[in-house]
Amino acid sequence: MITLQGTLTVRTINGRNGPFNVGRLLTEIGEFAVKDPELDQYEEGRYEGSFGINLIYPTSYVAGGRMVMEVRARIGLWSLDDIDDLKPEDQAPIVEPDPLEETPPIGTKPASDDACKPETDPDAKIDDTAEPAEAELEATTVGIQPEADKALATLFGELWPLGKEVKLDPTVDRSQFRQQRDHLKAAGYQFRPLDQLWIQAD
Q1: So where are the chain's domains?
Q2: What does the pLDDT look like over 41-96, one tens digit per residue?
Q3: Region of residue 113 (phi > 0: left; psi between -120 and 50: alpha; otherwise: beta)
Q4: CB 1 within 8 A of CB 48
Q5: What's the pLDDT tens digit per position in 149-170?
Q6: How far apart are alpha carbons 202 and 18 in whole angstroms?
């Protein structure tokens, strides 16, 4: 990882899968496109700070009937110092594909549902004589967990139940990340870019 001072310009595009963000990172060694999932948390603007770059690679896409070549950076560390509005030259209309529909670059491995499944021993025997756990006792007493809570528990995984502060994990599937973001917004959470945390409104 290399750490560079720079300015990240974040823009929002309305695509067929809903709004998504793209970024341009200007540093002392050059300018890079940024399409990391974390961007989908941010509002449009200019973000200054230190950025730890894990990967720099060339890529291309087709947009508006033309082939676009770009050098892209993957950011592994964000340390923001200041936020400003977009400048007039940053507000020109742009057409770019949704990163959700892109193929991961060579050398990266897409998130797999299997990675989240606990390892089980198919030969393991269930002890029917064991005392039920406290959570199981509560379930039999209170009743079945509402379907909505089950869905949210699946959506957020280890982050569930949510606290007053929530830090999303950008390594999850990009569509899942956006669903988490949308739920937090609907639930009254506000994103603090400098802290990279979602804070529950009072």
Answers
A1: 2-101, 113-200
A2: 999 999 999 999 999 999 988 877 788 899 999 999 999 999 999 888 787 777 88
A3: alpha
A4: no
A5: 899 999 999 999 999 999 999 9
A6: 28
